[in-house]
Amino acid sequence: MLYSVKMRASRGGRRGVGGRHISGAERIVPEERVDEVAAAMLYRARTHERGKADFMQVRVEAVDPAAIRYCPLLPVYDRAAETAAEGRRAAREELIRAGVSAQAADAGIAALAALPDSMRGAMVLDSETGERLDDQKERGVRCTNMDAADSAGYDQLMAARGLGGDHPREALVLASKVAAAPGAVAELCWSDDPQYVTGYVGSPRYGYGRIPVLKEKGDPVGGRVFFVRPGTDMVAYVRYMQDETVLVEVRP
Hints:
It contains six helices and twelve strands.
C-alpha cells in the first residue's frame, strides 16, 4: 500500500489559515516509510530558512493504486548565467524556444518579479497572449499529488548528476507532472528560499532547463508560472494539477 504524506508550515495565521507560507513538501511512499518521511518533513518545517513556523501540519492518506497515472521524467539540461539579469534573459529564450510567445514570456517573468510575497501555487498564463487564466489570485493553481515511481532509483540518478538535495529532487518531479498536463507548453519557476537562487524552464518539448541564477541571493520571494495553449480546458487542467496522482518514471 502506498501513502501520500504532505506537510505544510506557516507563520502568523490562525490555525493554518492566512499567515506567511514557510514550507511545504510531499511524498508518496510505502507504509513502512511513512514515519521516517513524516519526521523528516516536520524537522524541515521547524528549521526552514524562511523563518520559524507557528503552524505545522502533516497529513497522511492512503493512495488508491487504480487512480495512479504515470508520466516520464523530463531530461535535464543546463543554461549558463552568472547574474539574475542573465538568468532571466536565458529563461525568456527558453520559454520562446518551447513555444511561448515573446509577449507571454515577458508577461510571465514580469509577474513573478512583481510578486510582493511567494505564492503557494502557480499563475496560469495563455502562452500566446500572456493573459492570466486561473482565478486563484494570490493562491494560484497548485501542482500536487506526485512523486518518483522508484524513489531509491531516482535519488541515485539525481546524485549521479550532481543534483542531490530536496530542491532539485522536488522541482524535477513537479516539472515532469506539469509538462504532462493537458495543454502544457512551458513552466517558469524560481524558489522562494532566500539562499537558493537556481530556477528552471520546463517544457514537454525540450525538458528541464536549469538556470543557475534567476533571482538575487537573500530574496525570499519566488513562484511559478504555467503557460498553456490557447483554448485549454481550465477545469480539466486544474483537476489534473490538484487532484490526480502522478508517479514520474525514469524511461529509456
